[in-house]
Amino acid sequence: MTASPLAPAPLSQVAEQDGTAPVFAQERRVLGLPASTWPKLLMPLAVGLVALAAWEAVVRYNEIPHYILPGPLLVAKTMWTDWGTLSGSLWITLSISMAALCVAVVAGVSLAVLFAQSKWVELSFFPYAVILQVTPIVAIAPLIIIWVDDVRLALLICAWIVAFFPILSNTTLGLNSADHNLLNLFQLYKATRFQTLRYLRLPAATPYFLAGLKISGGLSLIGAVVAEFVAGTGGSQSGLAYRILESGYQLRIPRMFAALFMISISGIVIFLCLSYLSHLVLRRWHESAVKREN
Amino acid sequence: MIVSAAAAAASDDRPAGRSARPVVSCRGVAKLFSNGTLALQNVDLDIGRHQFLSLLGPSGCGKSTLLRLIAGLGEPSAGLIDWPADREGADHALSFVFQEPTLMPWATAIKNVLLPLKIAGVGGDEARARAADALRLVGLSAFENAYPRELSGGMKMRVSIARALVTKPQVLLMDEPFAALDEITRFKLNNDLLRLWEDSNFTVVFVTHSVFESVFLSERIVVMAARPGRIIEDIDVAAPYPRRDEYRTSPLYNEHCRRASAALERAMAHHAHHG
Question: Is A200 an 8 Å CB contact of chain B?
Answer without folding.
Answer: yes
